[in-house]
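re: that chain from earlier
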Amino acid sequence: MFRARFPTCATLPTMSIFVGATARVGEPTRWEYRRKRVSGWLQAAARPYISWWMGAERTARVYGLRVTVPVGVFPPKFFLSTKLLCRTLTSMELQGRTLLEVGSGSGAVSLVAARGGAIVTAVDLSDRACYATRRNAAANGLTIDVRASDLFDAVGGTFDLVVVNPPYFRHDPSTQFDHAFHAGSEFQYFHRLFSGLDEHLHDASTVLMVLTEGCDGSIDAIARQHGFTLVLHRRSMELLQHAYVLRAER
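^ sequence. v structure.
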């Protein structure tokens, strides 16, 4: 696997979002175009193994934690987005801070945050995902408040830190598992996310969201429509594809 070092936050620009192959405005260079072609081949080659792995309950190691992933739950092992969020949290001071993870999946991000001393609330629409998060928290000796919730429906109060690994494909979900990948044909997920987010923030709250390159620029426009600006916080590369942690700033 190919990785790029994190640049420091000070060197990263405010994004419009994913123009060309990178977060920079402008057409992709010849190298970037070729990189994306090769990245597509690598991901296609890995797809049969990922499908096989997801066909049964598996256990993976994520930052030293044992994470069991039932069938029908988003697997952190194969997606840079989860690993990048976990890596970002390990570099932050979390002790005693309240943290809300929206869409916990197997709970990997919440587990890393709880191990770092955060007071964690994890929500997910999927019953299987909630079960997995509770089970993995218990297996690792960690305390997490897990709630079945469609975004913020079962959430009250404000949080010091909100983290989101959202679905970002423009399709309507038809099953609970689809909600891990599909944000609706009109990006209804992002409209609901950004319209409900402010209620759960205080003046010093931080919101982190992870996306991969190639995401639809409408996501940025929806954030702005609801009073948020997406600012690039960190990025990394795996299988020659970039993933980005973004800060949603009011």
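The mean pLDDT is 85.
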